[in-house]
Amino acid sequence: MDLIHTDPRPGAFASRRGDAAAKREAVLKTAAQLFLEKSYGRTSLNDVADRLSVTKPALYRYFRNKEEILLECYRVGVGLIGSALDDIAPRCGTGLERVEAFILAYANAMTVNFGRCVMRLDEGDLSEDARGEVRAYKRKLDRRLRSFIQQGIEEGSIARCDPKIAAFAIAGALNWICMWYRPDGALSPQEIASQFAGVLTRGLAAGESRRVVRKSTNSDSGKVDGRRFVKKDTNNRHRNHSLLYQEPHE
Amino acid sequence: MDLIHTDPRPGAFASRRGDAAAKREAVLKTAAQLFLEKSYGRTSLNDVADRLSVTKPALYRYFRNKEEILLECYRVGVGLIGSALDDIAPRCGTGLERVEAFILAYANAMTVNFGRCVMRLDEGDLSEDARGEVRAYKRKLDRRLRSFIQQGIEEGSIARCDPKIAAFAIAGALNWICMWYRPDGALSPQEIASQFAGVLTRGLAAGESRRVVRKSTNSDSGKVDGRRFVKKDTNNRHRNHSLLYQEPHE
DNA sequence: CCGGTATGTTACCCGTGGGTAACATAGCAG
DNA sequence: CTGCTATGTTACCCACGGGTAACATACCGG
What we know:
The structure is a homodimer.
Chain A: H1 20-38, H2 45-51, H3 56-59, H4 66-86, H5 88-91, H6 95-109, H7 113-120, H8 128-155, H9 163-180, H10 189-202, E1 223-224, E2 227-228
The structure holds a DNA duplex.
């Protein structure tokens, strides 16, 4: 049973003497949902408690304070992204292939609630120490991507460019996913991931002869990091005519 | 004299009977600065007043309430971006060229405080009506970009792809600029813009023969939309070894 | 020099939300 | 059944920040 990708169980607080870990998890998940819906600042602990049909002080049995909930969201999300990326370095050969794998894995993580939290919530709401922890992690992510690019340039699979700026561009495109992605939207995570990989590695420009943008019929579709993907709207795609920034949730 | 790109004049509130418009402008600019430094939610009107060496109620002579300040930031930023983009459609030919021009102009706008406000501040802090206004504008931006891509695909200058997702990728990369760009950082706006244009249109992959990434020695450097760019750090670039998400301001 | 007015300030109200102490009870052990 | 303890609830405190009313004064015209 997956503890990260599923929604919070509504009856977690049904019985009084119940699994404490399960309750803590339910608190965390509903908090993450609300943080994504309304932002951390506009979410009160009463909101979280209400959605769980409890009262605010009950939450303090599972978390020391509001910030600890936020930090835990970051930690879970960071773990999620980390484990998604961990196995790409050994599996791939060229720098370009590694970047492509990075894009696929990262885009996917950006469609999971906790993953979205990592890039969408505001570090400014964390204490000094916690912020340092999160930043250190993000730095590691960036270094990884940049080293892939660097490697690709050296070996010739990637065009000469400033690896730092290129990494900013790719990471930006990926990070922004968490701003517009909706779980119930028309675009499936793997569709997004494969299209992003195409645009970012091969660019928009029509190469002389090469490339027909590969339709998402790759063999690795169907399941990624334990979550099942649904092929939604295969015939009538792109119904959701939104944009740079989409209507907010709820 | 440019009213948008300059910093707020410190002595704006020096004399009591002074230019009211100038004071209003000073309030707006310092507010925008603080919103970018600490976020809207963590910026109190006392903070704004303190930086201007006045007291909170004085601000209410120039704005009805806090939200009106925020909305005005959006409006100025939106105007900024809009006018930067307005003259690219006529000037360029192919869809690909238009997209490239879009990237250059937009990236540039994302390095101006008010431009950054548009994508970085949280629409959730606006009232229903104001949010609608801002969203309508962002929708227009997105439609413009998407139509350029569409045009490029039809005429063959852009590779076949999903224009919607491609637009998301490009807009995401560009929007994210406002999250890491620092006016006093090592990267100059036009350097960022031209590198972004390269990566996004031609992609990372090394084409068989083509391309050496054009260094930013283009003729249009030096001045863009009225602001003078300084060539910083030309010899020792890329000193700032940050990442996916950079240290916050201040 | 003298009012009058635009501009700012001091002092305050009040809603909101994080956090806590004291109390209530569900559910198990014996 | 009896009481003990983990779990929740009620009732509260307090800081903070948006917003306002009433007062003070700098500057201008006359």
